Amino acid sequence: MSLRYALLGLLAEEPASGYDLARKFERNLRRYAWHAQHSQIYPELNRLAADGLATVVEQGPRGRRTYAITDVGRIELRRWVLDPNDEPVVRNEHTLKLFLLSTLDVEDARKVLRQQAEGSREEYERLRAAIDEAQQAGRPAVSLLAAELGARYFQTLHEWAQWALDRLDSAEDRSGNA
Amino acid sequence: MSLRYALLGLLAEEPASGYDLARKFERNLRRYAWHAQHSQIYPELNRLAADGLATVVEQGPRGRRTYAITDVGRIELRRWVLDPNDEPVVRNEHTLKLFLLSTLDVEDARKVLRQQAEGSREEYERLRAAIDEAQQAGRPAVSLLAAELGARYFQTLHEWAQWALDRLDSAEDRSGNA
DNA sequence: ATTTACATGTAAGACGTTACATGATTCT
DNA sequence: AGAATCATGTAACGTCTTACATGTAAAT
Questions:
Q1: Chain A partners within 8 Å of B146 (Cβ)
Q2: What predicted TM-score, i.e. pTM, was given to this entire model?
């Protein structure tokens, strides 16, 4: 049911069309929290409207329909966000690969870690710059919490990769190899 | 296809039965990287064996079959881990809720953040203790990289939640509320 | 003797991805 | 005029969850 609440959450931030929502997933959510293709979004929007959690507030060109969350939808979203999910399941192919690094030989592991350190540094800097810009533009503090979390995740990933590279070096030193 | 490689990766660490693998997902992987139920694991193990990527190396009591990764399986696993997946998709219901905090009013957001700060601190300490113990026991450095990443993720989550609470306080001060 | 843990499997339904399908509007 | 983008939808297929199903071995 997460898709339903992801859509409801995005609509709670601002009204949007299915097309808009697909781009929001792609740009803002996919790398951190959730994803959906348009083929999943459009039918779910119709269900949300049928269930009275969202409603069409504007018809635009090319059949565009802008949806907004309803009061009932907001109550249902709040209930879901406040409900502590005890046994969370994370699916992250990238993290899975990092967890399986120990199955590679040291040179392969080093290669992955170097790519990782580089990639996460870039992503961190990109996010940090975006946050700074949003702050300059006067965006409210609460709307930047998510971006800050994303930035810190990539920072952590970067620092971990650097630390892991150091660790492999010193382990190799102790074992007496070149 | 991630499940296939998750299983291959776990078998690359050590031979295991479907039952063992289900427990490894539950205990080591579910909160960080991937998950699978036994109903998915057993059929996939049969497919891995049929494809020559894993093989039964021991028959135990109660129909237990211990699988090991084959040389072909190891090559295929290495190929997958080294292959940079350009457009990663993360599904994390917990992170999704944190990303949607801005849709709540400030008191609700504070409540979630306090729970978050507490929960992630506990999880961090649990992991840190486990790592220390493994280190004392002389586990090789490379096998602890994943645990270290998990610990750092929770540490980051904790620090972010604390920071976010501070942020909400100072935003409230500036707006002149109690 | 009973309970708990071990151990494997299948089936139905929900969820998610990829491919197919169509058409309007805007930009160059 | 042609290309890119906007915009919505369905269908087939693959993945994942939940429920059903069965039986053995170890622990109390």
A1: 98-99, 101-102
A2: 0.96
